[in-house]
User: Fold these one by one.
Assistant:
Number 1:
Amino acid sequence: MIIPNQRHLFSIPEDITYLNCANMSPFMRSVEEAGGLAIGQRRQPWTISAGQWFGPAEELRSLFAGLIGAGKDQIALVPSVSYGIAIAKNNIQLRSSQKIVVLDQEYPSNLYAWRELSKASGAEIVTVQRAGDGFWTEAILEKIDGDTGLVAISNCHWTDGSLIDLEQVSRKTRDVGAKLVIDASQSLGAFPLDVRKIRPDFLVTVGYKWLMGPYNLGYLYADPKYTQAGEPIEFSWMVKAGSDDFTRLVEYTDDYKPGARRFDAGEFASFIHIPMATAALSQIAAWGVENIQETLSRLTGVLSAGIQELGWEAPVRESRAGHMVGIRFPPEKIDGIRKKLVESNIYISFRGSSMRIAPHLYNDERDVQRLLEVLKKEG
């Protein structure tokens, strides 16, 4: 279902064309309002009950779980992808004879931890180069073999939205007995993803891009096999069994709350961030991720057609996610294009060798045409 334009839900001036959700989403008015109310309550801490330290986080946990087909006991609240990836690293053991498969030009948060694991274990890092036709999946599958211990990838590449078939990769990863870790920061909220089909060991995402929430609050999914004896990277009192009863906190225990809660970051209650993220995920759930993807796919389709009419090459639809498109230009043109776009109040990102265009429901075809007009003048 195509969703009507939703610009009225955002505080975006009429003269601004913001095509940069892959960098950071603007706040919806409902998210702003939730944050304002939370600040008001935080101003008067005597109004915050004991139940508010844990209850709102459970609601948010459930909302996120619903987006990926998981149970809420499989979800932890983390401040960043690097935090979640560090948890994954802490719970994956490799041998020196094994390999770690990563993507070329992967986002650093899904690479540095694996470099450390490589140093500690002796496992070799194998970097997958994108195929000449722009497709990733076959190139990844070719690198996965009996020596593979870990595959650490994204759902779509952060520089240009080029898509990876996670179900195919997951099947082969399981076939060789390897682990699968996914950074879904550039897909979750705009591209359907079901962990029941993909079955990753860990999945991590930020919350401030396509999930449209505040910075410094993200999400970790952990397969149930890690939720019984998995090792967290910090030891917050809030994740321990019985911590809801403040009168018994000095009755120390080695037991954790059930599920992935053992991986929650300290101070996850975040009285301001949690209500904002809840408002954001509630609206995403109401729109429906499948509908968001269908709507944005139509918009990027118009954009791609326009790019081709200008004589530049756009990636074929089958090679990319529908919510994002990366256009490659000669390096000598990029500075001039960037300057003209800013002068025209058009905001996109340049990542790697791509001009990354990432619309959302606050955009329409008029925004696309504004962008194309500037690019036409620079052509």
Number 2:
Amino acid sequence: MTILVVDDSKIMRNIVKSHFDKLGFKCNYIEADNGMTALHLLEANQVSLVLLDWNMPQLSGIDFLKKVRAMPQYETLPIFMVTSESARYNIVEALKCGATDYIIKPINDKNFREKIAKIKFSGIDKHN
């Protein structure tokens, strides 16, 4: 399984990956520091999940989400917004634009685990 982690902060990308690692999945990570780079990586790789920040240079997370959801091949790809944007209207907008779910920073382990557990991955391999 390959996870695309998109955040303009390297520290936040590492934090997001560490939260996912705690779930026990065997996975590879690819990283992008903006939405434009993320689009290129998505098209060049078989990605099982996108963990996406909102505020980034070049192409914001919400604009990335809109572009990806307009492509039929990605209509079922799980995309989680992982962001500090906690206003209700941001959450509603992201979900209307096709986000699978919304995780507010700072990340809470229990909340993260519960939200990720709701999605089904194909070809998942968990550590024993």
Number 3:
Amino acid sequence: MEKLISYVKHSRAELTKVIFPTKEQVRNAFVSVVIVVTVIAIFLALIDLIMSFALSTIA
């Protein structure tokens, strides 16, 4: 039981050291991720379209 109490005390002490992001930081990170994912998806779609077109003209 003593180990459990010690664990909880140490966990609380560590949580006081954590710096949580602000709402603005979370929003900026979210927007950045959405933009990057969208750009990569468009790039892959264009590559797929080009490859499909190239293969259909060959065959």
